[in-house]
Amino acid sequence: MSGGGEVRWKPAAPGQPALELGAVRAWLFTDLHLGAQAPQEITSFAAALGQAPADLQALVVMGDLFDAFVGPEQWEEPAFQPLCAALSGLSGRGVRVILLRGNRDVLLEPADGARAGAEVADSVLLSTAGGRVLVTHGDQFCLRDRPYQRLRHWLRRRWLRALGRALPYSWRLALARRLRGVSRQAVARKPLDVLALVEPAVVEALEGHGAAAAVIGHLHIAEERLLAGGRRLRILPAWEPGRPALALTPAAQSLESPGFMSAAGPSQRTPVVTLDGLAGSGKSTLARRLAQRLGWAYLDSGAWYRALTWVVLARGADAAAENEVLDTLSRIELHCHADGRVIVDGRPLQAELRTARVDAAVVEVADHPRVRAALDERMRRLRSHAGVTGVVADGRDAGTVIFPDADLKVFVEASREERARRRAAQQRAAGLPVQEQAVLAALAERDARDASRGASAPRLSPGGRQLDNSKLSEEEAVERLLTWVAPLLHPPDAGARAADPTGGRAGPSH
């Protein structure tokens, strides 16, 4: 792929281990982040390996086995002894053990893996009845994160790795801790779309390897995607105690099968809650507050349409011409922060979205069917972005069109008089002149216009819940929503980790 100034992904050099799966069984794990500071997790993973079936012939750890691998001395630490013994034990049974380099264990060398009976590589190819499968960590596909890609490029220089390994072990440990802290701060500041993978890069890699499917980690989500040309992508979530491996078996070798590479255990789909309603019902305020209380990402769908409208006007395009609006959308990077702020080509937009010009033109932009379809698809990607453990979305069709499979759909209601009172209060607080009868008339006109929007009209979704917000305080409404969301956070079979649905491992593993 080229253009856009993105860092180009380069396929791994020839000679990478090619694991011919055939009719055998393999286990895949990713993003374990094992460290001496949490020896119980090392012991738990070693115990899981001890439960490997007798017919297992391959184990692939897809990167980031270590929280930070700084050299062969780590194998000698008491905390890592169970891990080394478990890997060596599998190898002694004839299981082929392969450790792929991630971003936290880039210093891994073949000699390091050999100490635990393992091979070390950047990627592997599995041969199945349905075609070849590329297995790799996946960070090389996050091309929009240019600072990280530059760092990744340098860390994979052999001379730099050798220089790092030459430092005293205590220095390497201290440097790794320092880099992890800097990395966490950097990731927290980056827009979510910057951390996402670039699908054309995955397709290019598959074409280069003659593969029909890819399995990656790094993003800390569980998802399956259908890529261009009918190719498939499986993203594995970070490992945590109790989470099973992805098992590749003869019964799951058909790439055309809907159950291709289905992992044992329940799906780890990112939960979504939608709040729809008429203008002035309070849905945006409640959605933002709910997302803050849950620690989830907030998606203000109206702000996305306003941002596109602002760009259309700024570039002199015709908001009434659907083709011109679509062309504008195709030329911009549009994404958001977890707090709902919309970013266009790296520029945060806030006050720009509430101008009179945008107010007048956003209706035309939002009424184009193909524009809605394209923008809605971009918004859906928020669910699969790194670091997103849940999404709260608001709009007029968030639950009926954007996220029809949302886990909880709420339709927020309030009387027109109450909505007019609130809207007038907002305008007074902003220092604007207010005529309440004019506000009421404007809402009546907006309600009629929204009701005529067909599939995008605000309405209660099948299976959804109604929240009459006319007489509830903001806090009372949020508390009621939290009671409805609670089953998503604490399902009956969630076990001991229910109190922390993210497992403490959400986010990319830079």
Per the CATH scheme, the topology name of the largest domain is Purple Acid Phosphatase, chain A, domain 2
The major pleated sheet works out as: 6 strands, mixed
Helix content bin: 25-40%
Q: Mind telling me the CATH class of the largest domain?
A: Alpha Beta
Architecture of the largest domain, according to CATH? 4-Layer Sandwich
Determine the mean pLDDT: 80
Question: Would you kindly provide a brief summary of this structure?
Answer:
The chain is 38% helix and 16% strand. The two termini are 23 Å apart.
Please give a structural write-up.
- This protein is an alpha/beta fold and 510 residues long.
- It folds into two domains: 21-252, 4-Layer Sandwich (Purple Acid Phosphatase, chain A, domain 2), CATH 3.60.21; 272-490, P-loop containing nucleotide triphosphate hydrolases (Rossmann fold).
- The protein contains 17 helices and 19 strands.
- The strands form four sheets. A six-stranded mixed β-sheet has the order 1-6-7-8-10-9, with helices on one face. A five-stranded mixed β-sheet has the order 5-4-3-2-11.
- Strand 3, helix 2 and strand 4 (96-100) form a beta-alpha-beta unit.
- Helix 1 runs parallel beside helix 2 (81-92) and helix 11 (322-330) runs parallel beside helix 13.
- The model is unreliable at 1-18, 252-267 and 493-507 (pLDDT under 50).
